[in-house]
Amino acid sequence: MTKTMGYRDWRWQALWWHHFFLLWSITDAQTRYSIPEELKQGSVVGNLAKDLGLGLSEIFDRKLRVASEADEQYFSVDAGKGELVVNDRIDREALCGQSASCVLPLQIVLENPLSLHRIEVEIKDINDNSPRFHTKEMSLKIAESAAVGSRFLLQGAEDSDVGSNSVKSYTLTKNECFTLKMKEVEDGKTVPELVLEKPLDREKKAAHQLLLTALDGGNPVMSGTSQITVTVLDNNDNFPVFDKNIYKVSLYENTAKDTFVVKMTATDADEGPNGEVEFAFASRTPDSVLSVFEINSLTGEIQLKGDLDYEKTTSYKIEINAKDKGVPEMESQSRLQIDVIDVNDNTPEIVLTSEPQPVREDAPSGTVVALLKARDADSGNNAKVTLQLPKGSPFTLKPSFSNNYELVTSAALDRESFSEYNVEITATDSGSPPLSSKKIIPVSITDVNDNPPVFSQPSYNVYLKENGVPGSILYSVSASDLDFGENAKISYSILDSKVQDVSVSSYVYINSDNGSIYSMHSFDYEKLKVFQIQVQAKDQGSPSLGSNTTVHVFILDQNDNAPAVIYPSSAALGSLSHQRMPRSAKAGHLVTKVTAVDADSGHNAWISYKVAEATDASLFTVNLYTGEVRTKRAVSEQDDSSQRLLIEIKDDGEPVQSSTVTVSILLEDGLHEPILDLRQKVTEPSKKTGRITLYLILSLASVSVLSVVTFLILAVKCMRSSRSSGSCCMTQSDYDGYKNPNRNLQIQLNTDGPIKYVEVMGGDMLSQSQSFRSCMSPMSEYSDFTMIKPSSTTDFKEVISVLDASLPDSTWTFESQQVSRKQ
After folding, report:
1. CA distances to 150, 248, 261 from 244, in Å
2. 532 with 497: CB under 8 angstroms?
């Protein structure tokens, strides 16, 4: 044992010196290395990183790994040095048998991005196997009558090595009767033959002991021996003779058992037992043949008793012996060659070289998803495999080399439509009938932020009662995003805008998580009727996507304002209103008119008047709707000269809001004299009266025309003028509320009472009425014109001052005006 190990150590050193460097070559974009077999584990095959043009850092970053088609992983990569090293013992004879070339194909797989490199490692044979005979002892029986020059075929030795390391020559120990010759058989092989050089004499020597040695061509030379015993027999001097030296038969690999294969035929010229021939397989026939075939020893018929498999054995070469029953037995040999014909009995197979990687939905066409290989254990057309994907698939197969393919994208991907694809690949061979198999490769699609949030409505209308509680929720908007994960998380915000020159964020705020909008304070319809909120929804993708919507907030009026008196002016200012009338007044005489406005709108602004208290309830009445105070009957001498009326003014809202005004009326007997003087004064300046009448007509005509264009003119005038005008008391915000052209304007002229006025009524989309009144003095020489908007917050003291400026002195009465009309 020790001697054998020493010899092997010496042999290893010689091989290492013989292969002191590694040979590699790059052919057809493939790297090829050559190494001897039986290298120790860890031996360097080649610098893989350098040959592939990779840096050491890329080995880690791109997860370089070696994929082998063999079941055993014979090689690995030293990540620190980038070298391909031997991972396990490599026995060339176990891998490739007697094949002249032994090449191990390897696939180097790199990720991020996926790429595949093919390398080949050629395993060089070393002389590590000695020639070996099937049996250590051979026995030959030769008749003593055998002629000089007769040849006797010997069993050849076998060497697992190939090429120059296989069996090259034989030697025979020196003797006086026999020499050794070589006989060439098929495939260029030679077998030894024992040649009789001198006649045998059984009486002198009945047996001859010979030592046959087989030598290989390796360095150092290795050998094997077999002991030959030659027994000299008496005369049976004819050998059985086969009718063919070689029998050739072809069988399909799916041939059924017990099928007849061939009949071996041999004849013997002798008679009797010396001419009876028996057939048998040669003694060195391997079990792989004996388990598949059987021979009838008498007839020479060979039958199939086992299963044929082309993928395991493509051809059987069997030696058949024929010997007679003579003494000594005479034996001859013939060779039977059985070729197995391939049948398409193996389905093609799809093997993943690299696991599929997740793909971004915006990946360009041609992005590599996975690496795979198709293979079929059959041969010829039966092994030609085509791969096919279903129609409409956004993927395609790109061939690379040796039935290797890349699965790449071929169309646009959309994760929102398909978040994962189960790519079904069908492999079909070219056999008859063709066989196929399928493999499903799951490919997941990763999300890209390509969908903005979408609101459930393009706009929202919110109706909110005024005077609400601050902090109460106004509305909740909602948006959805078709993307996934962070790309689908939505936050809400309010875009900055102005409401009455104030940032909208001063009015409301929004919950960024759920889109709920809250008020920051209560709203006053009389100050703000409608405003818009621009809400933006943004996702958390990169880059972030967003969309906007508009929330229209309509403030609904509540009856929160009591009617306010604007005439008589003294009552509007909080003092007692004093009026005078003659005792000669008849029933229906207009004493005065109480005018009030309500800052609310709609029903909440409808005003009614009634007498709450009176010194004499039978003397005066007030019109329910106009507020005109008239006598119910003629004044008598018994009536008190000082009358007091408490007039209650109510709106039509819920709850009802009301206010009161006290009017003091003084009954005078001599009131007619100044009236006569006034008549004369009024009569004399007829030109002035004509001018007043003309102005009234022009005012009425102007109001008719203004029903179409007045608001546009006033708006332009108010916007361009930096100073306030007595003829325009409408603010910019009031004008903004009347930009809508969809208003129904109504003009109403009222000439009753001490105040002449025109009411311009307009209704907006929400049926909320607005009133603009043109106030004109009955005695003014200059057509004073004042716009009053009841729903605005105009200071009533200013209004009253305007009215007072347009009225005559305190001695002026409605009756005097009537007298002037009569004249």
Report:
1. 20, 10, 16
2. yes
The pair phi, psi for residue 435, each rounded to 5°, is: -110, 150
Please give the single-letter amino acid code of residue 335: R
Is pTM beyond 0.70? Reply is no
Least confident of 116-130, 309-323, 504-518, 715-729: 715-729
pLDDT at residue 81 in the model = 87
809 exposure class (CB count in 10 Å sphere: 0-12, 13-18, 19+): exposed
- Nearest CA to 493 out of 485, 504, 502 is that of 504
- 496-514 confidence digits (pLDDT tens): 888 888 888 888 999 999 9
- Check whether 682 has a pLDDT greater than 50: no
Query: Using a CB cutoff of 8 Å and minimum separation of 24, what contacts does 97-105 make?
Result: 98/160, 98/162, 99/162, 100/162, 100/163, 104/68, 104/70, 104/74, 104/75, 105/68, 105/69, 105/402
DSSP 630-699: EESS---TTS-SEEEEEEEEEESSSS--EEEEEEEEEEESTTHHHHHHHHHHHHS-HHHHHHHHHHHHHH
Kindly tell me if the per-residue pLDDT of 681 is higher than 70: no
DSSP per-residue string spanning 600-647:
S-GGGG-EEEEEEEESSTTTEEE-TTT-EEEESS---TTS-SEEEEEE
Predicted local confidence at residue 620, as pLDDT: 92
Structure tokens at 9: 């150590």
| Nearest alpha-carbon partner for 292 in 309, 276, 275 | 309
In a 10 Å sphere around its CB, with 0-12 CB exposed, 13-18 middle and 19+ buried, how is residue 171 labelled? middle
* Closest-CA residue to 518 (of 460, 454, 459, 464): 464
Helices vs strands, H then E, count in the chain: 11, 56
Whether the per-residue pLDDT at 761 is higher than 70: the answer is no
Which structure tokens are listed for 769? 């009425």
Highest mean pLDDT among 581-585, 695-699, 719-723: 581-585
Q: How far apart are CA 493 and CA 151, in angstroms?
A: 108
DSSP string, 509-530: EE-TTT-EEEESS---TTT--E
The tokens of 379 are what?
Answer: 């041969």
141 vs 701: CA distance, rounded Å: 155
> What residues contact residue 813 under an 8 Å CB cut-off, 6+ apart?
580, 581, 671, 675
How far is the C-alpha of 402 from the C-alpha of 103, rounded, in Å? 15
pLDDT at 459: 93
Give residues with Cβ within 8 angstroms of 271, minimum separation 6. Answer: none
Kind of pairing, strands 564-567 and 595-597? antiparallel
The confidence score (pLDDT) of residue 74 equals 86
pLDDT, position 701: 75
Contact 636, 675 (CB under 8 A): no
pLDDT digits (tens, 9 = 90+) for 341-360: 999 989 999 998 888 889 99
